[in-house]
Design brief:
It is a single chain. By secondary structure, the protein is an alpha/beta fold. Helices cover 37% and strands 17% of the residues. The protein has an 8-stranded parallel β-barrel, surrounded by 5 helices. The chain starts with 9 loop residues before the first strand and ends with a helix. It catalyses: aceneuramate = aldehydo-N-acetyl-D-mannosamine + pyruvate.
């Protein structure tokens, strides 16, 4: 079973992908971005190529290069670099998962495929299992965001027995307003030491009361004008 050096918890910054005026990725900003998060925001864990980073709007090659830059620039500065590797194509998601392992990422996360959607828990778990198996040494997190994927399978249902199918499963990023579902995730899995990372900034206080172990959000990246202007 995957065992991270440090448990993913506390504040995790969902990173923005910096762009130039011409729509090209501005890789030169990422080193300063790391320093900004660590020195000014006190945040040492990041979630790369997720919704905030517009990962699914980037090409596979762009996603690979962004991941590489964050891992490289974050070395010896960041505690955890988790790469979102979800994609509509299973093969592309597997490719991104393998790449994340090769470059030294600390974990991977995957959303549900959302064009031809999984119609039940077993179909979704089979997809996630195939991706996780492509990076068997990395902790695996499920990214639950039904408002964008349209996949309405409750997270609480998905977690039931998930480590039997995905031994590297370590927790989930819960980006939904259904606090009943979130609370049941926590209550029914307290003994498993999962990471319960909440992803809706506006409801974070409520989630913390219910047992969230951390938060993934854009809260640490809301004033980047000084970085992008230099």
């Amino acid at each position: 079973m995957a065992s991270p050096k440090k448990k993913l918890q506390g504040l995790v910054a969902a990173t923005i992908t910096p762009m130039t005026e011409n729509g090209e990725i501005n890789f030169s900003v990422i080193g300063r971005y790391v320093d900004y998060l660590v020195e000014e925001q006190g945040v040492k864990s990041i979630f790369v190529n997720g919704t905030t980073g517009e990962g699914l709007s980037l090409s596979i090659e762009e996603r690979r290069r962004v991941a590489e830059e964050w891992v490289t620039k974050g070395k010896n500065k960041l505690d955890q670099v988790v790469i979102h590797v979800g994609a509509l194509s299973l093969k592309e998601s597997q490719e991104l998962a393998k790449h994340a392992a090769e470059i030294g990422a600390d974990g991977i996360a995957v959303i549900a495929p959302f064009f031809l959607k999984p119609w039940n828990k077993d179909v979704l778990i089979n997809f996630l299992k195939e991706v996780a198996a492509s990076a068997p040494a990395l902790p695996f997190y499920y990214y639950h965001i039904p408002a964008l994927t349209g996949v309405k399978i409750r997270a609480e249902e998905l977690l039931d027995g998930i480590q039997d199918k995905i031994p590297t499963f370590q927790g989930l990023k819960f980006s939904d307003t259904d606090l009943l579902d979130f609370g049941q995730c926590v209550d029914q899995n307290r003994q498993r030491q999962f990471a319960f990372l909440f992803g809706v900034d506006e409801q974070l206080l409520s989630a913390l009361v219910m047992g969230a172990t951390g938060a993934v959000g854009s809260f640490a990246s809301r004033d980047l004008s000084t970085l992008c202007s230099n």
